Amino acid sequence: MSRVALRLSGVACVRGGRLLFRGVDLALEPGGCALLKGPNGVGKSSLIRICAGLLRASAGTVDRHGRVALADERLALDMEQPLRHALEFWARLDGAGQRTLDGAMEAMALETLAEVPVRMLSTGQRKRAALARVLASGAPIWLLDEPANGLDDAAQLLLGDCVAEHLARGGIVLAASHQPIALVTPVVLHMADHVAEDAE
Amino acid sequence: MNLLVTLAARDLRQAWQSAGLWLPVAFLLLVASLYPFAVGPDAALLGRTGGGMLWIAALLASLLPVDRLVAPDRDAGVLDQLAARGIGEEMVVLARLVAHWLGFGPALMLATLPAAALLKLDGATIRALELGLLIGTPALAALGLLVATLTAGLRSSGALSGLLALPLAVPLLIFGAGTLADGSGAALKFLGAASLLLVAITPIAGGAAIRAGRE
């Protein structure tokens, strides 16, 4: 397997006939992290979806080596299932063992909620569940869309710890966030700089 | 294969929990019990027309769960999470097809027995009906799923699903109901061919529809 990397060069995105951004360049090597900043609707989530392979870049190239784990605003956990079972489905797809999943739930302080149905969880608890899935996936590239939304101070610290540990192990993190999240020397990408001036 | 089982098992569990499995069965039984009230209790007439009527009921029953097959998982982000893991949309749709048929085909075939009794169908007709449904229900499941993938992103997809599915379902209905009166077995072969075609194109067309729906 080749070295873990995420490289964007000259990426542009057109949604609904409107050019959202263009000329986005980014190169992340193991241990690298980037923070997307910019006002609402500037295309942060679209860029994350492009990196995840869910959207095609209208121009430019996306070069990705390594599996990705995505945490966006949608939970994608079965509402009626107890949290542990719901996460287990994804852990099985990711080839993660029980111990990995337990570790991820512990890292997000979810172990006491294991038997609670997902629909009973609060906003912050759901966000932590989505992050636990990212942790358990074992994927080297993390794509986090507003990971700190709805998290209390303690959970934000947990998130910071997990991200730092992931980076220290040679992972890559690309996050879009309004809240400050604890990233050590991130590459800050101001999306507003890439908005096309002559956009129709 | 392992992946297919994991995905299908989850889809089946979801269908079970959303009570999607009982709806087609209840619908079929309801239609079969109402039909004699509408056409009268003439046993000969019921026996002659009942088989075809059950085919119509089976077809309409297969459209009932359409709005729950794809749209909720699309909205919840499940399909995106699967795609981000590099799992092909074709595989996702194939697993869903397996789960949908398992949850719907055998139950419908079982429900046909009491329904046939209500309509005073004879043994030969019941055998032909069950054999036809065994071959035809995978196609009905495939058709429902295909329409579900096409309409997943739309509002008020329910009415549109019916309009999209019914023209495609006509061959199934003709050959399926045709097996009841046909001694030569030709209708059964045509039904098999139509069924194979629908089952084969659904993962491909459905996968493409899901991908296109992301843009």
Question: Which tags fit this structure?
Answer:
heterodimer, A: 200 residues, alpha/beta, 5-stranded parallel beta sheet, 3-stranded antiparallel beta sheet, 5 helices, 8 strands, globular, B: 215 residues, mainly alpha, 86% helix, 0% strand
What does this molecule look like?
The complex is a heterodimer of chains A (200) and B (215). Chain A contains five helices and eight strands; from the N terminus they run βββαββαααβαββ. Chain A has 200 residues and is α/β, with parallel strands linked by helices. A five-stranded parallel β-sheet of chain A has the order 5-6-7-3-8, sandwiched between helices. Chain A has a three-stranded antiparallel β-sheet with strand order 2-1-4, covered by helices on one side. In chain A, helix 2 (83-94) runs parallel beside helix 4 (123-137). The longest helix of chain A has 16 residues, at 153-168. Chain A is globular. Chain A starts with a strand and ends in a 10-residue tail after the last strand. Chain B is an all-alpha fold. Chain B has one domain. Chain B has ten helices and no strands. Chain B has helices spanning 2-17, 22-39, 43-63, 66-69, 71-76, 78-84, 89-118, 123-151, 157-181, 186-214. Chain B is elongated. The two termini of chain B are 29 Å apart. In chain B, 44% of the residues are buried. The model of chain B has no long low-confidence stretch (mean pLDDT 91). The chains are: A alpha/beta (200), B mainly alpha (215). Chains A and B meet through strand 5 and helix 2 of A and helix 1 and helix 6 of B.
